[in-house]
Design a protein that fits this description.
GO terms for molecular function: oxidoreductase activity. Belongs to the short-chain dehydrogenases/reductases (SDR) family. InterPro entries: KR_dom, NAD(P)-bd_dom_sf, SDR_fam. This is NAD(P)-dependent dehydrogenase, short-chain alcohol dehydrogenase family. This protein is an alpha/beta fold and about 260 residues long. It has a single domain, classed as 3-Layer(aba) Sandwich (Rossmann fold), CATH 3.40.50. About 45% of the residues lie in helices and about 15% in strands. The protein is built from nine helices and seven strands, in the order βαβαβαβααβαβαααβ. About 45% of the residues are buried.
Length: about 260
């Protein structure tokens, strides 16, 4: 076990995670498997080896459905497959994203649209697809992974930053609209979480050191640091919490 708190109501829960086979998503998948949840996840690349690893590590095998989440028909089909296998989805974690760096003056319409198609559009339509079943159950939890990037007035990846600001707005409006149905909708706003992809693509030792100067906690954040917050927001431990954005960034930005 990873040492995360145990939330008894998550045992047997039907959980769906987008991008659940790598980075933060892989940590989320592992964390919910350890709770005894029935986890289904999607991603574009094959995740069979990851599923084997998780089964050996947790004794609980996730259901992997290969899917490009920008194909909304495929995404909704994957949600239906998961519901058929595990029962109506009670916890949806919208996690998949692409924080590709791109100079603002070089961005064309195609790049902008492609960024929204992965970083924002699936969040809305996956939520829309699972909400009717949650309404029928009289409860449900949607957790949207956002980012502190827009709170920092960061630069170099404007479409991603814009999408994450929108995710916070989407979180709040869905929480307002469907709160009467017992559905809670919250966001998690990670700081600089170090993943293999970021190390490979853009994160340098100098950049990491500069960011750590801004953090209150002087250590790098890892995907596992996001799991406790996600478990809390998905569980009955946060039964009175909705329309909120939970910042997990080591103390880089402050709210309130």
């Amino acid at each position: 076990m990873s040492g995360h708190p145990v939330f008894p109501d998550l045992a047997g829960a039907s959980v769906f995670i987008t991008g659940g086979g790598s980075g933060i998503g892989a940590a989320l998948t592992e964390g919910f498997l350890e709770q005894g949840s029935q986890v289904a996840f999607v991603q574009r690349s094959d995740a069979t080896d990851f599923c084997d690893e998780m089964e050996e590590k947790t004794g609980n095998r996730p259901l992997f459905i290969q899917c490009d989440i920008t194909d909304l028909d495929a995404l909704c089909g994957a949600l239906d497959t998961a519901a058929s296998a595990h029962g109506p989805i009670g916890v949806l974690l919208n996690n998949a994203a692409n924080d590709q760096r791109f100079e603002t003056l070089e961005i064309d319409e195609a790049f902008w649209d492609a960024s929204m198609a992965i970083n924002l559009k699936p969040y809305f339509f996956a939520s829309q697809h699972v909400i009717p079943a949650m309404q029928a159950e009289g409860k449900g939890a949607i957790v949207n992974m956002s980012s502190i990037s827009y709170m920092m007035a960061d630069a170099g990846y404007a479409p991603y930053i814009t999408a994450n600001a929108a995710i916070t707005g989407l979180t709040r409006t869905l929480a307002r609209e469907f709160g009467p149905d017992g559905i809670r909708v919250n966001a998690i706003m990670p700081g600089m979480v170090v993943t293999p992809r970021q190390l490979d693509k853009w994160l340098t030792p100098e950049g990491m050191a500069k960011h750590l100067e801004r953090q209150c906690l002087k250590r790098t954040l890892e995907p596992a640091d996001m799991v406790g917050g996600a478990l809390f927001l998905a569980s009955d431990a946060s039964a009175a919490m909705t329309a909120q954005a939970l910042v997990l960034d080591g103390g880089t930005v402050t709210t309130g």
